[in-house]
Prior knowledge:
The protein is an alpha/beta fold. The chain is built from 10 helices and 15 strands. Strand 12 (318-322), helix 10 (330-340) and strand 13 (345-349) form a beta-alpha-beta unit. Helix 3 packs across helix 4, helix 4 packs antiparallel against helix 5 (171-214) and helix 5 crosses helix 9. The model has no long low-confidence stretch (mean pLDDT 91).
Amino acid sequence: xxxxxxxxxxxxxxxRLGVExxxxxxxxxxxxxxxxxxxxxxxxxxxxxxxxxxSREREVIKFGEDTARIKIEVQKYYKASEIYLLFSRxxxxxxxxxxxxxxxxxxxxxxxxxxxxxxxxxxxxxxAPEDRxxxxxxxxxxxxxxxxxYLGRYEKILANRNKLLxxxxxxxxxxxxxxxxxxxxxxxxTKIVRMRIDFVENLSPYAQKAHxxxxxxxxxxxxxxTGGAVLQGKGGLPLEQELQLIKDDLSKRLQKSVDKDIxxxxxxxxxxxxxxxxxxxxxxxxSFGSQGQQRTVALSLKLAELEIMKEETGEMPILLLxxxxxxxxxxxxxxxxxxxxxxxxxxxxxxxxxxLPNAKYFRVENATIN
Length: 370
């Protein structure tokens, strides 16, 4: 899988852009605030249908304009396709695949798979569990439309349960009504937890391999999904038994937390509260790791994503690296660039050494790329 061409119109600081890209390493260099990150944002928008940067989608429309457009031409092993997004200040965004409008955002997943890494991705390691859940949800949704459906369904059920907890002041009514939502929450939540456990289990060896490579075999990385504790020591069970264990555990935790939830006014347990425990040499990297270690772990997780996406889809996804090299020492930069040769890569920065193998250089200046 690789991107053949990107067209932008009134997207962020780009008035009009049309660039054909190389199927190897695309080096996007230029001074700050010229449009390098905006280009990567546009590409990733076509993967998941939303921005990782904008809280409101209208923010991507160039100042003074009413609409913005992204069009990306993608080549896969078996077909070429075109992804088109239209943003308007007056209406909802429109997404088309090969000229045909889609009705649900989930239909976009899988058309263009990419892994995105920027300095902000340190949040994946050092910030709240929400960032690690988002990491899981974005990845699994790109390879499983069913998971994206489960996630949307769970969030709706959770919102209804939380609204009941917040609005109803009669404790007896709450205790009689909550089980109705709990049954639905457990049913969908069990499937989400099982798919997340699979993801973390699949990710772990690839992440360890990438981390060993980046650190020249000096550190050992460990990953564990906290919501899967009920399955620890019970490996090899049939799927139905594993699902039943997760279901029973989630149901018990919801029942046990009823009084607490009533007091808090929201649901305190479930997949929306789960996390990934990350350790280096058996030490909690979030609490005790240096910033350099945390950055390398975050990058290792992203590189591992590439490998399991290839394993699960049959095609290597696009790698988007935004201003990453400046934060790495010389040895890790060299090893990362060698890794990039595995797939089409877009890598941004203010300055790069010339003559990188399998690379084509592009210069960004005032939202123009040459």
